[in-house]
Amino acid sequence: MRDVIIEQACNKLGGENRYSRGYLGYLQYLDLVNSRNELSTAYYDDKLVGALEKGQSIILENWKRKMGNVVPYKNIFLRSSEPIDSYRRGVFFSGSLFKLDIGSGKEKGRAYICYKHGEKEFRLGHSLDGEDLRKEFQVVVPLDDFLRMVGGNVTAVKKQLCNLIQESLKRRQEEFRIMVDDKDQYMGWPTQERETHTLMARFESGAEKIIEQQLLDYMTNRKNLDIMADDKKIKMADDSFYMQGCQLYQEDIDDRDSAHRVRLSCREITTTPEKILYSLVISGQVTVVLCSATASSKSVISNLDIDHLKFVLGDRVHTLSEEESEKFDALVAATYPKGHRVYTESLQHYRYADKRKEKVRLPDHYRRMFSQDAVDDGYVDEWFKLARERVYKTGGESSDPTFEFYRIYQFIEAYHWFYTHDDIHSMLFFQNRSAVKDKALMTQMRVLACLIDGSYKDQLKSGDFDDGLPEWENEHLFMSNNLQEVEQVVLNGLSDGSLSKVMLVTAYGSFKAGANLQYQVPEGLDFLKGDNWEKDESKLKKDWDAIYLQSPTSYLTMDGDRTGLADEQGIYRVMMSLMMLKERGWLSPNQVKRWLDCAVSGGKLYFREESVARDKASWALTILEQAVGRICRTRNKPHTTYILYDEDMKGYFMRVGLQKSQTMEFKALVSDVVAHYGESDMDMCRVDAEKRMNDAAEARRALNRMRRNALHFTPHPFSDEEDFDEDEEQNGIPFRVRNGQIMNQYYKQTIITQPVIDSFEELTEKSKIVTFLHKCYGDWARNDLGEIEGSSVSPSSVRLDILMKNDVIRAHFEQNGYATEWKPGGLILHPEILMADYAGEIGEEAFRALVLRYTHCDEDAFAHLEGRDYELADFVINDADGNHKVAFDVKNMNPLIEHNDREGDLATSRKRMIKEERLGCPLYTVNMLKMPDDSMDSHEICGVIDKEGHVIPEVMERIKKLIES
Q1: From CA 890, how far away is CA 892, in angstroms rounded?
Q2: Any alpha helices (H) in 315-402, and if so which ranges?
Q3: In sequence order, what are the residues at sequence separation of 6 or more whose Cβ sits closer than 8 angstroms to the Cβ of residue 211?
Q4: Per-domain residue ranges for the chain?
Q5: Radius of gyration (Cα) for the chain, nearest Å?
Q6: What are phi and psi of 271, to 5 degrees?
Q7: How confident is the model over 528-552, as pLDDT tens digits?
Q8: Which residue from 178, 111, 116 is spatially nearest to 147, judged by alpha carbons?
């Protein structure tokens, strides 16, 4: 699925189309808006003009907010001091939370769009902080902010046009239903595509096809989750990569333009397999079944992100239990022929202790595997001398130029095994790179095969080794990655008996998952027959006799000599892979940036990060299982199936990747590796700690954005830079503000109810309205006191133990399903969340419990604040007429610590004054636990309960009077 998505993305944004996003795309939409007075009204009346005017009002406001009164000039040029021949940089986006500045590694600082009064163009400059640019230009805007702004403006216009398309489509379909004249129906049923074309035809734009496709993508590309909560469906924005996709903008210098204009090219991924599957399942009409070695993989590189799908789809995702897998494996094993056995053999990774060229010799162990005549005649030494020259020439100054020998030696051993075992008629040799694409490698393998089986004698000519390795052929060795070629030559040859012994050398992933490499049983072959569907003996097919498995290494790689489409596809693949690893918590933003820098710089990319060890192990096991699966397709077997494997793969055999259904052959491989080497002993403690910290940082960013949206209308000292391009609701609340408020309410309910969970399956459907909730939990270790190791966070540090000493508060918590303790084990909220959000929430609910018990106030008297009044206070009490009487901000602060206003925030007194003015009633700040009185003013209540949980009578009486007076 990812291959198809990448191919479509390359086609959609290939050539000049790569400039149709970003600023050039904005100018194209601006041309549409500015042509509104020149459009025909024959089809849309005045609705098209109205839609464009509404879009214009939004984009003018957004533009002015960033660029002031500057005209949107057509051209962007380099700042005069910028070198033209240096590597250009870019910006990488994924949703509204993730942004990176991309460079070659040596490039520092950020890119800025600049404007100087009197000029009629923008300038692109680079600076660490922009201060030097502000001395030269009057307008200096970071490139990422500029791109977000123009992207929001384009979306605003798209939304207006798409609303009009949907409206006209509905109208046309209604008209079509009542048509009776056939001549009116010649165009057929009205479609979204035709209505989109109809709208764009009004503009006669040169960008018609591009914008049509963009409008269709906008209408069909889901970016929200549909979640059932409290018997209603709520649409929530999901900022994950899987829903939002990603964009990579790069600064391209037009070398054909004498003035060297700068254009911003864009690579964009708009959909993912996870989004496709989510949309299919959420439709309620489709069941998706995933069944293969890949589907059970825990790796996001070789598979979908199943954990993400489990979180967003909940109990609609079903996986085989351990018992079901065992039952399935037993049923499959029963179909195997009796007497069949699997023999496994580990091949050594030979390492030279002394890597100096003159000290590198052919080990006796491998010399003995060659034909004795070839050794005696000196041809083996001739080969080795040439091979050593090539290895040291291509290895260059690498730390281990002899690394290539280990793979050469394993081929020698595998071919020797193949040739000397008479019961091996067919053998698969899987390696990482394609021999077909490396002529020197193909030649060397053929020479080695001939020197081992002695067939060199029939081809030997004088001076064969004088100018390099000879171009010998070997009838037993076939190298190909082309399935059709393999079927026609190898499989047909094995089936009709014209090939009696063949080793097929190929690369992992050469053949698609559904490709079968089995061949019909040739006449006279001794084999074991199992439980077959096919009853016609002449049509029976059998599996291959042997297989060699090289340790997989191509986890995430890019060649340095890639060009054209291969380069584009490689960059897209790296973009997707890095973002998936980030979503799982295996990579930090800085790590993503480092590898993206490497990918776009054009050099080789060999991905190395210890933090992805689990994913890489699962990926490698999937590669191996798929390869072994090539010899597990039938129930007809040789008496012995041979599996030779590279000992280097032992580090991949982690328990997490092995807990799934396995074929008999793969199970034998696993057993042998574990028996010889044990399960991987790689220390995962540091890896898991990195994942916890990455998840915590991701949750912090998401929570900050949720609060920024939810509290958009509450008093704060900073200017809100969010560009809202959505239509406002009838009450004037933007979509993201409303979503943020809904999400915040469910977030607070979830954390007070479930500070600790055993697994994400415990979370309710409605709690998943908080689309990043799974990032808020981690498997933090705790000591006997309940403290999270590495921090002092515990039930006592958030005052839960003191609150629970009060019977009224405890009863209120139990009645409402709130946690009265932190159960052991499982996943717990991150320490920062517990210390801040959780502590505040339990304090608020404790206050509610006491008010309901000790005053005449009931639940109906509590005002429900939303929209512009959201979170102006924690509690607002209404009088009998529904007017605000008194408001409370409740705190659960540690009484032993001095508390001051946060740096940069509004002073408490100033904030209270603004809130009281908007609420129309007095606002009091209450701390649940007794605090020193000297820091309190007349609007602050310094404690409702003491450290034993007892209510302080005079304080409760004061609160009662405030509520009931």
Answers
A1: 7
A2: 322-333, 364-367, 372-376, 379-395
A3: 28, 29, 32, 200, 205
A4: 20-222+249-270, 332-555+616-677, 747-964
A5: 34
A6: -140, 165
A7: 998 888 888 888 999 999 999 999 9
A8: 111
Exposed, middle or buried: residue 223 (CB in 10 Å: 0-12, 13-18, 19+)?
A: middle
CA-closest candidate to residue 251, choices 409, 366, 87, 399: 87
d(CA 410, CA 646): 8
pLDDT of residue 782: 85
**Strand order across the 76-78 sheet:** 76-78, 122-127, 110-115, 139-142
The strand pairing partners of 428, in sequence order, are 504, 547
| Cα–Cα distance for residue pair 630/231, rounded to 1 Å | 49
Q: pTM of the full predicted structure?
A: 0.89
In angstroms, rounded to a whole number, what is the distance separating the alpha carbons of residues 125 and 110?
8
Structural contact between residues 881 and 916, judged by C-beta atoms closer than 8 angstroms = no
The string of DSSP letters for 238-299 reads: --SHHHH-EEEEEEEE-TTSTT-BEEEEEEEE---HHHHHHHHHHTTS------STTTT---
Q: Using DSSP bridges, classify how beta strands 640-646 and 546-549 pair: parallel, antiparallel or unpaired.
A: parallel
Q: How far apart are CA 796 and CA 89, in angstroms?
A: 50
State phi, psi for 567 to the nearest 5 degrees. Answer: -65, -45
**Residue with the two structure tokens 């069949």:** 340
pLDDT of residue 424: 96
d(CA 644, CA 347): 7
Contacts of 656 (CB under 8 A, 6+ apart): 298, 614, 617, 618
Tokens representing residue 68 in the block: 């002031």
Q: Are 662 and 364 in contact (CB under 8 A)?
A: no
pLDDT tens-digit map of 363-385? 999 999 999 999 999 999 999 99
Q: Quickly count: other Cβ atoms within 10 Å of residue 168's Cβ.
A: 19
